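Example 3.
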Amino acid sequence: DTAVSQTPKYLVTQMGNDKSIKCEQNLGHDTMYWYKQDSKKFLKIMFSYNNKELIINETVPNRFSPKSPDKAHLNLHINSLELGDSAVYFCASSQDPPWRGPGDEQFFGPGTRLTVL
Amino acid sequence: AQSVAQPEDQVNVAEGNPLTVKCTYSVSGNPYLFWYVQYPNRGLQFLLKYITGDNLVKGSYGFEAEFNKSQTSFHLKKPSALVSDSALYFCAVRDRGDSSYKLIFGSGTRLLVRP
């Protein structure tokens, strides 16, 4: 069984469209994350949720809206897609919230490659 | 502000030779340090972490890393490289005292192990 899964794996769309990426983890973890990896492989945190509550909200355009219907799911909705949104988006999860201890290792999904034309 | 530097974009080694992937960090307080590996078209996988205690940390697949507080470094090492170790390696840091809880990643180092 896949621990952290993302759908879709590839997403090609036109500028201006709205799209969503879904993430699910079956590890029983409390905390989930969204990262963006650009074409130079630079990885940056976007959001983090703990038990459906937002705990990290980086400076990203408000066109990006995360939603956590339950602690096993964290979806990412992107409005009015722009060329610069093209990247690989990774979902991740960890057992505990970061304030609880030294920092659990994070388990990453396989990524969603978003291409905006 | 916390930051991580991986000074080498790429490291090339021959199979069987020792390898080192360099990482230096900057935090205002004490760090939590991590190494992750990314294989092509895959997500990142955790290798090892330094929290406290022994400066030499052992991790998965025979990798280890040494925490050096005076040099603010956390270099990744392996005594004998395998071709299958070829991948992209990321160092990451979190400042224990930082209430933002963010994990900051370096820019990554590509390791190529030639047969």
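The mean pLDDT of chain A is 91. The radius of gyration of chain A is 14 Å.
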